[in-house]
Amino acid sequence: MTEPNQHWGTSLENFLTEDGTREIAKGEAATRVIAWQLTQEMQRQGITKVALAERMHTSRAQLDRILKAKGNITIETLQRAASILGRELRLELV
Fold first, then answer.
1. Is the full-model pTM beyond 0.90?
2. Domains parsed from the chain with CATH numbers
3. Which of 3, 6, 27, 33 has its CA 20 to 30 A from that of 85?
4. Taking the alpha carbons of 70, 74, 80, 83 in that order, is the dihedral positive or negative?
């Protein structure tokens, strides 16, 4: 008979904490949410990726990485994109 899964019945948060990856996962999730919000604001304003990349003085490929939340995206980069779209990026400790 197989042994039961030790994580069966635990929450994802508990699993990630035990695995030591909880903070990494939370950071990636926050970045993805902000990237999604930037994409939604671009669509709302009718701004293309090419236009936003030009305003940010970056390449379309780099903007794609930002909007897909791939790689090491800095808070400064997210703030700059938000500012160009007329929005503000807020971070807070809770």
1. no
2. 15-84 (1.10.260.40)
3. 27
4. positive
